[in-house]
Amino acid sequence: MEMLENLKMAFSALMGNKLRSGLTMLGIAIGNASVIALVGVGEGAQKVALEQFEALGPNVLFVSTSSRNVRRTIPNPRPLTYEDAQAIASQVPAITAISPELSGKKILSFGNRTSNSPLIGVGSQYLNVRNRQLSKGRFIMESDLKRDNRVIVLGSELAKNLFGNRNPVGENLRMGNLSFQVIGVLQTKGSLFETNQDDRALIPLTTMSNQVLGRNSIYGIPLTHISVLAKNSAQIKAAQFQISNLLQMRHQVSDENYVQIFPQTTVLEMAKETNDSLTRMLASIASISLFVGGIGIMNIMLVSVTERTQEIGLRKALGAKEGDIKGQFLIESVILATTGGIIGIFVGIQGMYLAGIFAALTTSISIPAIILALGVSSAIGLIFGVVPAHHAAKLDPIVALRRL
């Protein structure tokens, strides 16, 4: 009954000063809204990254070489080559497909339309390794690689930019003084790490090296990197070990840091860790407003104690104990903080939806973050209400009644 009576009195006191109570709750509401919105945006970004990785394929490894981290300086580092990719394909049993890649950029034109999109020289297994599909035509074949054929496969957005609603398959477009026949169009993929996968063109790796870039070395066709598809997730470590040993032997380098192999899962963990760190940092910054809101509650409750000195003295004279007075003021501060927290959660969720609509951000409602924010705001009300409640409970009823 005492608790129920304290609740009634607390609500009555707060409703008697609606404006002051509302302004007091504002700090907590802003803090909770900020935390919920920022955590939602962070988790949404992490969800998008996870979906992109899953779309890329779970067992993909990216292979490159670097002489930066080796213990022994290599005077003339050997580039990663097409021949290295062929050796990996034939000598590494832990993989099922391989895609050597050589990147560049060239202006493509058709009629009066032009595009300066990324151009990538690839092998015939690119679709399998990168988990891509064709929407029209065919893909690059081994015969195109052997003959240095001037054929090209376009991303869906690039095809639309150059050809509009016209079917590009069979048409010829210009790349400098060279003419390329469009043989296929890729299905829409979207963005991966803020890179538009649909605004790019693919041509045979040999054509890219010999005719477009004119870039060869004494070791063969140089590559930007090699994408490899392991048989399954259990074979990823075996594939890493086998590829590293093979390339070290081929390049005559004994340092294991020379070969850089990044599994898709490792990159995913790095991206997740970065997103988690950013989300925690943003949430910590937003939590400062919760602390400020708690100070505001304590300040207002101290003012309330001063204003209600006569009421406190009268209650003590009628037999109220210190615990009763302390409980009433603690309940008032918790009500203020919890109500402000609930309002902040609602505002934060609405803010996430608005961010998704107007800022094109992917957001995700985090139930644990909502529960934590509500619990923290209630705890803040309890913690910052202790001092005013203690001050009220210690008032001398005789001194308080003299003001009547």
Helix and strand topology:
Elements: H1 2-15, H2 18-56, E1 60-65, H3 82-91, E2 95-105, E3 108-110, E4 113-115, E5 118-122, H4 126-130, E6 134-137, H5 142-147, E7 151-154, H6 156-163, E8 172-175, E9 178-186, E10 191-192, E11 195-196, E12 201-204, H7 205-213, E13 225-230, H8 236-251, E14 259-263, H9 264-307, H10 309-317, H11 322-358, H12 367-384, H13 386-393, H14 397-401
Parallel strand pairs: 5-12, 7-9
Antiparallel strand pairs: 1-13, 1-14, 2-5, 2-13, 3-4, 3-8, 6-9, 7-12, 8-9, 10-11
Helix pairs in contact: 1-11, 2-9, 2-11, 2-12, 3-8, 9-11, 9-12, 9-13, 11-12, 11-13
Describe this structure in words.
The chain contains 14 helices and 14 strands. It has helices spanning 2-15, 18-56, 82-91, 126-130, 142-147, 156-163, 205-213, 236-251, 264-307, 309-317, 322-358, 367-384, 386-393, 397-401; strands at residues 60-65, 95-105, 108-110, 113-115, 118-122, 134-137, 151-154, 172-175, 178-186, 191-192, 195-196, 201-204, 225-230, 259-263. The protein folds into 2 domains: 2-52 and 272-401, no CATH class; 99-224, no CATH class. The strands form 2 sheets. Strands 1, 2, 3, 4, 5, 6, 7, 8, 9, 12, 13 and 14 form a 12-stranded mixed beta sheet that branches. It has a two-stranded antiparallel sheet with strand order 10-11. The protein starts with a helix and ends with a helix. The model has no long low-confidence stretch (mean pLDDT 80). It comes from Microcystis aeruginosa PCC 9701. It is a multi-pass membrane protein. Residues 21-245 form the MacB-like periplasmic core domain.
